[in-house]
Amino acid sequence: MLDRRKLLLGSAALALSGCKVFDSATDRDSALRNLFASHEGLTRAAQRAVIGDRLAPEFSEADIRQGQRPNGSVNPDGAEYRRMAGTGFRDYRLTVTGLVDSPQSLSLADLTALPSRTQITRHDCVEGWSCIAKWQGVPLGTVLKLAQPKLTARYAVFQCFDAIERSLSGEVFYYESIDLIDAFHPQTILAYAMNGAPLPVANGAPLRLRVERQLGYKMAKYVHTIELVDSLASLGFGKGSYWADRGYEWYAGI
Amino acid sequence: MPEGPLIYRQRLTTRITHWLWAVSLFFLMLTGLQIFNAFPSLHIGKEAGFDYDNAILEIGAREVGGEVQGVTRILGAEFDTTGVLGLSDGEARAFPAALTIPSKTSLATGRIIHFFFAWVLVGTLAVWLVASALNGHLRQLIPSRADLRALPRDIADHARLRFHHTGEYSVLQKLAYASVLFVALPLMILTGLSMSPGFNAAAPWLLEVFGGRQTARTIHFLTMVALVGFFAVHMAMILLAGPLNEMRSILTGWYRTDGGKDA
Asked: Which of A212, B169, B179, B210 lies at a CB distance of 3.0 to 4.6 Å from A56, suitable for a disulfide?
């Protein structure tokens, strides 16, 4: 009897207050948020266990029914990027640095001269939409092998030209990171072409990452530097990516 | 009101799993609407059409003669849903703040709470399946041939709001609970997994079964609507069949029967 009354009162209170009671879960590092976010480790372990090194589904030419919808930054406005875009990225260099024995500086010509992989895959945005497109690029593993990662390297960090916001301490540039399991997966490529044409600026020219078994925000656009590191703690707010620093899962397989 | 003897009707595992589902589904639904709000349309196929139209539902806001309206489009038919869908409290958002967790717009927070309770739901379902298979509860939910023969009479009894209070479920109860536990919840879990790009690599055949990721998302949403329908009927039945007795049985396990004069 008492139980029932408590229950009814409780649910009435919940209904009346809308769902504001749970709004503290939006505060970074609140206890409530950390409790809910604890699913991420379990999700990653479970997914890794069932996925192994399997490939993401690939599609046919007939499945490409529209252009690739751009999202996030679509036209970086930094001076260096604008200058390079104006000259067709002729003097663009991809820097591979960090925990490597042989740091690299690769031009677009160097990258396109390496063996490429072409894949028609579905891009899944965290918002909920999907879009199918054809991507061509050099497998990230090929580039990393050129640089010879040290045994201590655990993550590949991608530094990008696009500033998403301006904070008091200056521009906040987009960055992402993946572990070496995803970095050496055969479908993980540095794409320089899309749907049979050079990668458009809106989609990340001259070079963007494709990590086909994760959500779109992992696939950094406008990449200029790949740094191999042993920890993500010193980057940004320490969560390993621009969006992870802002509450999204670092592992975005779901 | 039934006046027969009290019987022990619901085991502890049944009661605990019931409430874990109730809590999980509450959070899953309201965080699900938060996630839906980030892309408030439903599509059929592998991808969402931007250059072509494969939407069956779209919720949005638009300006008509200097005034903003909430608009819901279902299978091509448009409805003005200002105040509820598309536009509420002067804010352009698909579902209103009162129906989302958190109340303000936060896709990231909606997602972590959603997946947390998805694990709770899956874990609870697994525990319940094993426990119910062992203790015989599973059999109580599957209609027998005799049950199905009694279906017309059970429908007629329900229509007249004449309920029987025995230790066993009526055939309509069995069908309702079995369709939630063996159809709706597994469908929610499988369509949810079909939206995961990681899980797609593990089980690409599941995408084929549902007809693509966007169709899976649409089925996920429609199954949610069906579960809300179940919830409404479930609440109505509790109120009509005697809320005190029904609540006692799902909280303490004890249930007062009709005393065997009716079956």
From this structure: A212
